[in-house]
Amino acid sequence: MPDSRSGDPGSKASKELIVPAGAPEQILDKTIIVTGTPGVGKTVLARLVTKQIRFQFLNLGELVKKEKLYRRFDRSRQSYVIDEQRLRKSLIDVFAARGEGGLVIETNWLGNFMPKKRGMIAVVVRLDPAILARRLKRRKWSKRKIWENVEAELIDLSLYESFKYLGPRRVYEVDATRKPPRQLLHEAMRLILAGRGWNGVTANWLERYDPIELSRKIL
Ligand code: ADP
Ligand code: MG
């Protein structure tokens, strides 16, 4: 049976959720951070949101690479170690050039490199860790890197980082598991437009997975 709360396709709720293109007034001044563990579907969702509300899109990973805002490349992790101070300066410039809001920012993590801005909110994308592991395997990542990220997803790292950085009233959690991108878009938009912050509905993967068993299955 379609569950109207989850916005299943075809349910009453999902029809009501179709948001007209262009930004509704209450979000014009927003800077929307889309965050979460690598592989959960941030780029797909962030691009849909950007198009829907005609904001501009900034992928922090790409900005770091393009402007060489890293200190070095960590071979064992196969990733760049970002230069947080320089990234922060660069973002201050981006925000100053843009004025209020109008920006969707995709990032794998949140920290002091992100200058605080009025109207800033975060959408934390979650994904079933077993599905996440399959996606990261497809990226041909090392076992170590896959497990580090699956573990981060298991313990809600992105969610807590976002709470710490913005406080729960400016954080929205969406579970992308088995949801087509457009359904996820509608769910995220509905939460953002309601503007009430984190609703306490959380993924809680540790209730479903035993980390040791999962690591044996994955690795
Ligand atoms: P991230 O930006 O978080 O690393 P991506 O948006 O690049 O994640 O998505 C990772 C992979 O998962 C891509 O192959 C993408 O096509 C797929 N994907 C993303 N969102 C969904 C979704 N809602 N349903 C099914 N597959 C998805
Ligand atoms: Mg991405």
Q: How many β-strands, per DSSP?
A: 7
So what's the CATH class? Alpha Beta
User: Which secondary-structure class do the elements indicate?
Assistant: alpha/beta
Name of the CATH homologous superfamily: P-loop containing nucleotide triphosphate hydrolases
* Proportion of residues in extended strands: 15-25%
Mean pLDDT: 91
Please give the count of helices: 10
How far do the termini sit from each other? 36 Å
Bound small molecules, by name, code or SMILES, are:
adenosine-5'-diphosphate, magnesium ion
Order of helices and strands: HEHEHEEHEEHHHEHHH
What's the helical proportion of residues?
Answer: 40-55%
Question: What is the domain total for the residues?
Answer: 1
CATH topology: Rossmann fold
CATH architecture: 3-Layer(aba) Sandwich
Can you offer a commentary on this structure?
- The protein has 219 residues and is of the alpha/beta class.
- The protein has one domain: P-loop containing nucleotide triphosphate hydrolases (Rossmann fold, 3-Layer(aba) Sandwich).
- The protein has helices at 12-16, 42-53, 60-66, 84-98, 129-138, 143-154, 157-166, 181-194, 205-208, 211-218; strands at 31-35, 56-59, 70-74, 79-82, 103-107, 120-126, 171-175.
- The chain has a five-stranded parallel beta sheet, with helices on both faces. Strands 3-4 form a two-stranded antiparallel sheet.
- It is globular and about 50 Å long.
- The termini are far apart.
- Bound molecules: adenosine-5'-diphosphate (ADP) and magnesium ion.
